[in-house]
Amino acid sequence: MLGFCLAAVVVVGAHWSHETQARVGLALFLALTACVYLGALLAQHTSTLTAAAEFTVAGLVFVCAWLGLTFGAIWLAVGYALHGAWDWLHHSGKIRTRVAAWFPPACAVFDFVVAACALFVA
Q1: Rounded to the nearest 10 degrees, how much is the dihedral formed by the CA atoms of 63, 68, 72, 76?
Q2: Domain count, the chain
């Protein structure tokens, strides 16, 4: 429920903003989300494979944020959906970067809702 409520706030804010401001705001927040698991990764010892996967996905999400600013909101939707899928892999235990148990499912819901709405508000 937390992820949905926070996504609603972001979507309403983007909807009330000018299209350019909405796209910039969504892109900046997407770029920020690319760094969340990297921050958690720095606070623990993990395998090289997990670290490489975290850096790769963070890089892809960050690139989607840049593409969203440069070429269109479809890339923001792709980036949020990619990050939502990554959240789900954390929640299911397939990726072992430790974060608070509530975070991956809340973030996944947030990301998928914002991804769907990014196509319409930006």
Answers
A1: 110
A2: 1
